[in-house]
Amino acid sequence: MLRVDGLTVRFRxxxxxxxxxxxxxLTLRRGELLAVVGESGCGKSVLAHTLLGLLPRxxxxxxxxxxxxxxxxxxxxxxxxxxxxxxxxxxxxxxxxIPQSPATALTPVRTGRxxxxxxxxxxxxxxxxxxxxxxxxxxxxxxxxxxxxxxxxELSGGMAQRLATAxxxxxxxxxxxxxxxxxxxxxxxxxxxxxxxxxxxxxxHAVLLITHDLSAARRVADxxxxxxxxxxxxxxxxxxxFSAPAHPYSAALLDALPDRKFQPxxxxxxxxxxxxxxxxxxxxxxxxxxxxxxxxADRIVDAGTVACxxxxxxxx
Length: 316
Ligand code: SF4
Hints:
This protein is α/β, with parallel strands linked by helices. 31% of the residues lie in helices and 24% in strands.
């Protein structure tokens, strides 16, 4: 449904160039939930905004991202189709977004009910259908339907998050990008939201889940892609990833989980304005060798790909 090929995003600042996304490749199939994981600032959310055409003016983008919502539909290249087509046909219709910051994404002068009903009517529902469907969506996301009569600024962060999720679902997009969709939710609502996303995939849709929460990915993902310093460094089926990650950074992320070693990753990610020529993880990597001064190419490990000179199972 979605094939991203060589996607590269740069932001030009007055005195620096931000390498936000570099040569990114991924595929998302019908029925698949792909989790893109990594520490804050690695480029995950920029990926979401790039696919939706929501980047600021100082961004330059190259590469391709083909969206094909059904086998007989022509693929749309989201990067090159133009804002007019994105706005008319794609954004909020074929490709939906649960935003990371719902408080700023929700129109403040309309109640949740009105926001939902307007969205549903714009997608062909009658007035009566929209009213009923708005209440059903509220229930689906764990909101009390009475709370739909509040304005966004009257909602808690978690309630605003659930309203934003309901709005994203209202257009029933073939592909849904969920950018940290469980922010501000307590554990039971986190699971409720994740299970909702899982059910969408089981019903034949596709979800790109962007999260720093590996527990969330472990609960629902079919596939995990790990992003570090603007690049995807490992992509594996979820079972394989959580049982035997191949990239040293993936292993460190898992070791940091409270139910594993609870061991923080030493050091910090590099600045995206000053990335090294070789492996960006080298200063933090216990396996680094001289060869890591050169950029590692993707290689096949298990059922996925890994960008590392010394992935698990390979000899030095
Ligand atoms: S390429 Fe080298 S430094 Fe980078 S993760 Fe692999 S072993 Fe570590």
